[in-house]
Amino acid sequence: MxxxxxxxxxxxxxxxxxxxxxxxxxxxxxxxxSPSRTQVESWIxxxxxxxxxxxxxxxxxxxxxxxxxxxxxxxxxxxxxxxxRLDAPFRGRGLASEVLGAATDxxxxxxxxxxxxxxxxxxxxxxxxxxxxxxxxxxxxxxxEGWPVEGGRPVAxxxxxxxxxxxxTGTVTPLVWExxxx
Length: 182
Ligand SMILES: CC(C)(COP(=O)(O)OP(=O)(O)OC[C@H]1O[C@@H](n2cnc3c(N)ncnc32)[C@H](O)[C@@H]1OP(=O)(O)O)[C@@H](O)C(=O)NCCC(=O)NCCS
Description:
Elements: E1 3-7, H1 15-24, H2 37-46, E2 55-61, E3 65-73, E4 81-86, H3 96-110, E5 116-122, H4 126-134, E6 138-149, E7 152-163, H5 164-169
Antiparallel strand pairs: 1-2, 2-3, 3-4, 5-7, 6-7
Helix pairs in contact: 1-2
């Protein structure tokens, strides 16, 4: 796997690089698409990048160098979620599934208490949704109008998950949507 997740220190050695990364990139599918320095600094102070629930990593590629940022969320829940942000020049180049695969290996490989790994994105974030499917994640929920859009109609929020058992065996445990029949 050419991607390595390198744990970062948001309050000390990586603080400036983190602020720089977050403020020079656009994140059109996030609730705050263009964070300001003040916003990022307040997230750092609140522990959004590292506390008992959150941990953050740089995404280092063997040949390309640093290609993005990855954060684990809800770590005290035993079913973490994540936030993945590639640096703009590295988007659309087929890296998403490699990153997701490396992150899934990190979670199941180093966190024995975790049985499920979860992710959520907007319905129109097609690259992220395709990456989930390519990596063996299963769509588990489609929350209609679950994602507020400033000045517009909300879009759906789509939830995916992968089970430890499926990661270990390379399978996808199916679910039946209409399990009670029509
Ligand atoms: C979302 C993100 C991680 C995806 O990574 P990426 O490297 O840009 O995506 P990829 O180039 O690997 O493409 C992933 C898949 O989507 C497909 N795809 C890409 N753009 C597409 C488009 N506009 N329409 C349809 N499919 C598209 C690719 O062909 C690929 O499909 P495949 O695996 O079946 O071949 C990246 O664009 C990003 O960081 N965006 C900003 C932050 C963000 O939205 N993060 C997600 C929050 S969880």
